[in-house]
Amino acid sequence: MNIVINYMKEWRAEQHNLKTSSDIQGIVKSMPDISLKQVHLNVTSLKKYLSEHDTDMLFIYGCDNKVSVVEDIAKLKDKYQKVKIVLHLYDPKSTLLLKCIDLRINDIITLDDTQTIIKEISDFKNTQENFLKNKTHSRQVFGLMSSKGGDGATVMATNFASALSQNSMKRVVIIDMAIPFGDADMYLTQTQNVFDLTDFVNSYDRLDEVLIESMVQRLNTNLHFIPSAKNFQKIMTMKLENYERVIERLKDFYDYVVLDFSSNFDPVSLNIIQSCNHIFMVLSDSLASIRVCNQKINVLQQNKVMPEKIALIENESRVNEDITTGHIEVALDKKIDLFIPFDNNTINESLIQSKPAIRIDPSCKLAKKIVGFSQKWSGNHSNKLENKTIWRNLFKRT
Predict the structure, then answer these.
(1) Which residue range is the domain that position 59 belongs to?
(2) Are 232 and 149 found together in one domain?
(3) What are the residue ranges in the chain where pLDDT is below 50?
(4) pTM
């Protein structure tokens, strides 16, 4: 593990509570496979340095408490996503911290003591080790679809993908497979992307990492989005034989691929559903939804989809309060894997802001349920480092 401590401008560790990098190196000798370097570079020079040196973790000290500087650090973090960047800010104002949150700069420290560095290094090392242990959970494709229109598969898909991306060690892409009436973008972003699923399908023959990175819509550093095609003329040009191949190609570049299907089966989507590692069927507590769900489960099993690949998610609608989860499980002869509580206010706010509900109100029951569910399926049950907030980083004394 290669760790770099950068002191910007004339900032010197000896003038503060930090020891020199050689002293820190002596402390971390007890941690195997760790090398530590000290440099004095500005942000522009750091870009060049990171492009030329294999770096796992970067500490940045001596930054001016200015929004422009933080924005430059955010661009650096966005470009070198595999490098964990820890930013030191001395006595920052709340407005600057809020800007950091907005830019997804979550690893901020205000203490300038050596022990803080050692703690950050130790936590990062443990996270990487846990990542390697959970590597078998990578490269999974999750397919989500509603029992019937309006049951909430898109809400679940967008929030599930967002929850998976809370682990910055994982790359996640969500694809709106509902052609031509997909609306996953309504819960994710207010910005319209230049490229949609049609462009990916028709560009399959030259679809490499560089092209994928230039075409996807980047929602944050490790959550990307491919919107549904809404132009009928473009849809008519789609090379259907490449549809499934695109999903397979994306698996080479993402740990998790989340597919938001329409509520209807068609030959192309059915083939892709069959290739999914897991299928989440979202239904509501209504007789019509339960009936259609049973029909769809039968269709999937007739097409050789193993029952254990299908998970049921009950989205509480309060349409019929006489129907309980127990009634649904008896009717379908299958256990409900996740119960999503009714939370119309958060969902409406999600639509207004075009953000996943788990980011609108992380403390609500709906968010906690979905985040917990994502940890179950990703195998990441202990993600304490990734879930730390700026505020916890700032005020927790080591």
Answers:
(1) 2-134+386-395
(2) yes
(3) 14, 19-20, 136-137, 382-388, 397-398
(4) 0.64
